[in-house]
Amino acid sequence: MNRNKQKSKDYQSFLKNRHDKLNTSDDVLEKIVKNAVGYGIKDKQKIVEGEINEVYDITPTKGDNLIVRVSREEHNRFEAEKWALDNCRNAGVSVPQIILLDEVETDKEKLHICVENKIEGVSLQELIKQKVLSQSEIKDLTISAGEILSKIHSIKAKNFGEINSLGVGKFETWPEYMLEQNKNSDIVLEKAKNISIDPKLIQQAIEILEKTQDMYMNVDSRLAHSDYGIKHMLIHEGKINGIIDFENCKSSDIAYDFSYWNYFGKNRPSVEWLMEGYKSNGNFGENFEARMHLVKIKIALSLLIYYSDAGHGFAKEITTNNLIEDITFFNYVK
């Protein structure tokens, strides 16, 4: 087995172990669906793809299929996601319609519930994995994804960082958000140590974010999907039929979604294709390449904390590779 296949197998094992611990009872799911659409459940299928929520594809006894998402997080993001989805729909982006947001108390825990309509299609990630698309088809779909992203970024938000149900971020300025981990560098260094990342890389990354604030000081506040990738693009009849999973949505520099795409770039089509579609309607602004690298540094510092806590096996490699790439860029342009 080659290295990439082994990493994929390890990640699927990680997801399975995580989801094996997340099981909402049939009785609770039945109650949720009846509250949402007034009908019971004919069939259900658990979707094991995301890392946070328990997700089901539900066939009700009457009507179209539903997606039921269950969060056990105290500070779940469903209300903020609804704001993003409603605004995306108004901007002409095909996204799910949230039918019900609710809370359910069981004997053991409180569950936060989101019920939405199911958008027809297969993820671009799955189609690429199945090798049923030509390179030309993948390129065309990625260009289309860029066009859609420009519509998402046309939506203005307030402040920066994770938004609330009103579309307002928790940080007043973008530098405040970008330097969030700098203020807690001891914690970041400890988490990095847990996953065997060279502390010199962390220190260099923090220093770069401090010294380059003039490059990202005056960016506009726009809605970002914040997990814009091929697994969240549903393809139907050769076209992107919908964009899903805005749970991590932020108010940010538009560079964020490109940086996140690049962070996992080895497993995704070229970001240049994404940019090609985007620039037909969008504007990148000044210092865009540098801003992408800076945001990618911020993403690395944020994710390594999550990776350390979650026990991701591939954390060291992906974090180290990205930090080296970004630090090298700024050493080069000095």
Your description of this structure?
With 334 residues, this protein is of the alpha+beta class. It folds into two domains: 115 residues, 2-Layer Sandwich (Phosphorylase Kinase, domain 1), CATH 3.30.200.20; 212 residues, Alpha-Beta Complex (Aminoglycoside 3'-phosphotransferase, Chain: A, domain 2). Helices cover 47% and strands 18% of the residues. The protein has 13 helices and twelve strands. Strands 1-2-3-5-4 form a five-stranded antiparallel β-sheet. The chain has a four-stranded antiparallel β-sheet with strand order 8-7-12-9. Strand 7 and strand 8 form a beta hairpin. Helix 7 packs antiparallel against helix 8 and helix 10 packs across helix 12. The longest helix has 23 residues. The protein is globular. It starts with a helix and ends with a helix. 34% of the residues are buried.
The CATH class label of the largest domain is Alpha Beta
In the predicted model, the low-confidence regions spanning at least 5 consecutive residues are: none
Count of discrete alpha- or pi-helical segments spanning 4 or more residues: 13
Number of strands: 12
The succession of helices and strands, N to C, reads: HHEEEHEEEHHEEHHHHEEEEHHHH
Proportion in β-strands? 15-25%
User: Could you tell me the radius of gyration in angstroms?
Assistant: 20 Å
Number of domain modules: 2
CATH architecture of the largest domain, please? Alpha-Beta Complex
